[in-house]
Design brief:
- The relative contact order is 0.14.
- Strand 6, helix 4 and strand 7 form a beta-alpha-beta unit.
- The chain contains 8 helices and 7 strands.
- A 5-stranded parallel beta sheet has the order 2-1-3-6-7, sandwiched between helices. A two-stranded antiparallel sheet has the order 4-5.
- By secondary structure, the chain is α/β, with parallel strands linked by helices.
Length: 258
Amino acid sequence: MKRKDTALKILALNSSPRTGALSKTALMLGRLVEGMREAGALVEVVNLREKKIKNCLGCYTCWTKTPGVCIHKDDMTRELFPKWLESDIAVYATPLYHYGMTATLKAFQERTLPASMPFFEIRGARMHHPDRGKRPAIVVLSVSGMPDEAHFSALSAHMKYCFAHDNRLLAEIYRPAAEVMTTPFFKEKAGDILNAATEAGRELVRNRGISPQTMARITQPLAGPEFYTEVVNVVWKSCIEERITPGELELKREPPRG
């Protein structure tokens, strides 16, 4: 284990609006963070739903009048942006909303604009704004109720375009069919997935990456698409009949009626 004065500083950003056992984002992120801490990293977890982050105005004050400092005076300016700059790694954790990140995480990402300078530079075949200083490497973690990884393709393309060109994208962790991970029927496979998420945290700290074997365990299918569709549709029918949400159904801990 690394000494604390040389340990990696990691900022883990949970952008899910859900809390407790209902949040599969928090479930996966918690296990990833556990592995990071076991490997000696100093990890701070921030729930963005608890923070005030105003939308970027596109005013460019942070590029001209107050270089590197946003015009807003909120939790992003006072707390989160400085912590982001000081981190070696930032984990962007989000449930998949409309095939992308949550609006909360998008607002956070847009508010990191002060870390760039306004000038244009060409790197390879791509125009970009140069960095004002050090930035953290990025790990992306996302969960979806859909059973296949293809639903993450738009989010992945966005993250790769933003962070892969300068080698700051350390890993992308995508867990499909996450909504059923806490059901007893999938307990054994879900346990292996969560253990793999912990191992991924260790590997990221030790190796700055995740092995193909560990990633294969994280993304392993829980069930075939036909069976998964049947199970999920039964859940939705039960919720509609009882006029409750899936979260309320899960908290009741009662099996859905088929």
